[in-house]
Design a protein that fits this description.
412 residues; 8-stranded parallel barrel; FMN; flavoprotein; Luciferase-like_dom
């Protein structure tokens, strides 16, 4: 199975330190004028704006062999489609995994926008269809439907998108949408439909993935939970004849260093800063506003007595400490380059082939992962033999570096 890696573009500020710290890059700090690094004063026409830093991150991902980059859709950050459209012209191959709520677009508008993006970018758009989250926050932003209905509507939404894409005259009547003869025509119809990703562990989320997703995305929580969710979605996909079509990906952060000890020191730094800044209490309060699934997950990994950072290891080299201090996605592979690679292989063995993996700050950690972790997963290359005088121009295979053992700190 081929493994592909995806970085992430920080659309609402960098997180080298706890969010809000003035040492972070971006306009989302408490006092932007006092910040260091990539920050603009939010004035139109600034010589250097935050999008210029995002451009650096995107190009770094491409240079270091990432297949694409995830753009998270947060209500307090920049909008993914707008940013990725700008960055598509500054990159060559990088795919953009844009998260969006179907309720924010009409199916036809989304179809036309995606087809145009595909034509402009050379087919580099991936959709991450999201529907979960806090009902209160979504209602604040104009979403009237409760959780389960949002997923029913999203299934219809994608019914129409696929119908518009495949037919010049598409007809459909559902609970939330209907179409009477619309469809892509001409050059737009020749654009490839975006790869579709979705996530979520509720019944509605799994039904959406089963019917429409090319990739179902999970968090890197306990491998047992991951395996059960994959098996459940595969069984549901079989009802639509898609059990062999749907594939799986995982979202996880990484703290990878030369040694386990150096990686643990960095994890402890984040933990200690979060405790000092009070983000632990804030994260606990926010957990009461999460969806039922996310609240249960928070309690499962973060709701017990915690004395220090190492109490938050779910198992060796899998740390739930980011969730404890309120930094999503919450889980991280922590350890030496060798042991982080071994952790990736462990999760790949569960059936995961897309790894959305990044660290903080994004720019530097993309280079770190690209130089020390990703090469361990590249196919062997044939190179000219050196120092074999008289043996002609023979070639030898360069083997992949093995992942190493799993002995490390953790709670088993």
């Amino acid at each position: 199975m081929t493994i592909e890696f995806f970085a992430r573009l920080p659309l609402h500020g960098e997180t080298q330190y706890i969010p809000g710290d003035n040492r972070n890059r971006g306009d989302w700090n408490r006092q932007p004028h006092a910040s260091t690094g990539a920050v603009s004063s939010s004035e139109v026409g600034d010589d250097f704006a935050y999008v210029d830093y995002l451009s650096q991150v995107a190009r770094a991902a491409e240079i270091n062999g990432f297949s694409g980059a995830l753009l998270v859709n947060a209500p307090f950050g920049d909008e993914p489609w707008i940013v990725s459209a700008a960055l598509a012209r500054e990159t060559k191959r990088l795919r953009f995994v844009d998260a969006f709520h179907p309720g924010h677009f009409s199916p036809w508008q989304a179809t036309q926008m995606a087809a145009s993006f595909q034509r402009i970018s050379g087919g580099r758009l991936v959709w991450n269809v999201i529907q979960g989250g806090s009902d209160g926050l979504l209602r604040a932003n104009g979403e009237p439907l409760p959780h389960d209905e949002r997923y029913v509507r999203a299934i219809e939404f994608l019914d129409l998108v696929k119908g518009f894409w495949a037919n010049e005259s598409f007809h459909y009547k559902g609970r939330y949408y209907e179409a009477n003869g619309g469809g892509l025509r001409g050059p737009l119809a020749r654009a490839p439909i975006p790869t579709i990703c979705s996530a979520g562990t509720s019944d509605g989320a799994k039904e959406l993935a089963a019917k429409h997703a090319d990739y179902y995305l999970v968090l890197a929580e306990s491998p047992d939970h991951v395996a059960r969710n994959i098996a459940d979605v595969k069984a549901r996909a079989a009802k639509y004849g898609r059990a062999d079509h749907i594939r799986f990906g995982v979202s996880v952060d990484a703290i990878a260093r030369e040694t386990d000890e150096a990686a643990y020191a960095e994890a402890k730094r984040f933990f200690d800063e979060g405790v000092r800044a009070g983000t632990v209490k804030a994260a606990a309060v926010r957990s009461t506003q999460m969806s039922d699934t996310n609240r249960a997950r928070f309690e499962r990994y973060n709701g017990r007595e915690v004395a220090d950072f190492d109490d938050l290891f779910v198992e060796p080299h899998l740390w739930g400490g980011f969730g404890y201090i309120g930094i999503p996605p919450g889980f991280a592979f922590v350890g030496s380059y060798e042991n982080v690679a071994a952790k990736i292989r462990q999760f790949a063995d569960l059936g995961l082939s897309w790894f959305f993996i990044n660290g903080y700050p994004h720019l530097e950690e993309i280079y770190r992962l690209g130089e020390h972790v990703l090469p361990r997963f590249r196919a062997p290359k044939l190179v000219s033999a050196i120092g074999n005088a008289g043996e002609g121009d023979g070639e030898q295979a360069v083997p992949l570096v093995s992942g190493g053992g799993l002995a490390a700190r953790g709670n088993g």
